[in-house]
Amino acid sequence: MGGAVPYIAHRPKRADGRRNYDAILSAARKAFDAAGSDASLEEIASQAGVAIGTLYRHFPTRACLVEATTRDGLQALVARAEGMRADGVDPLDALTDWMANAIEHFSTFRGLVEILTQSMYDEGTPSHAVCMAMHRCGAELLRAAQDAGRVRADLTPEELFDLLGGAAWVRENALPDGDGSTRFLHLILAGITVRDR
User: Fold this and answer.
1) Alpha-carbon span 127 to 111, nearest angstrom
2) Fewer CB in 10 Å around end: N or C, the chain?
3) In b/e form, how buried is each residue of 3-14, taking b as 16+ CB within 10 angstroms?
4) d(Cα 20, Cα 51) in Å, to the nearest integer?
């Protein structure tokens, strides 16, 4: 698919640009945490102490702002997977650890699961490239656990990410006094793990 390359926001070189960029990102993280992915961009600009035009200069679309606020977490998931594979961590332990971290990140704020799911399949979204890298490293962890005979062989990477999305949705929508995603993950693992005969 030969669409236009999506815009990815980067921290400016000039000091005043960096200050504004950092202030907007900080305000956006707080706003998304409080109000989800539909948080008011005008309110984010106000909390950052900048005009809405300044926000749009750095982040032309809401998708660009969401990508910038979640980029570090997705890159950390990629690095975590690569690090565990390089360190020779037990394949099932590595997959389990990575799945728990993925669920936590996918549910950073309300609406993120849907955004990441769309970004995985839409090359025109700013988060597509990092989502692809994250999907690739999760698939590699899955294959390693399958090759070791620890996870059922018929589970596909797409199904794994569907399961992770479901668990993240549970966490994203949890009441303040409870989070069922840990039990949800345990149930997933019970269903995909190969038991010793």
Assistant:
1) 14
2) C
3) eeebeebeeeee
4) 10
pLDDT digits (tens, 9 = 90+) for 133-181: 999 999 999 999 999 999 999 999 999 999 999 999 988 887 777 777 8
For 80-117, the pLDDT digits (tens) are: 999 999 999 999 999 999 999 999 999 889 899 989 88
State whether the Cα torsion 92-97-100-101 is positive or negative.
Answer: negative
Domains and CATH numbers, the chain: 7-60 (1.10.10.60), 63-192 (1.10.357.10)
Terminal C-alpha separation, the chain: 47
Predicted model pTM: 0.87
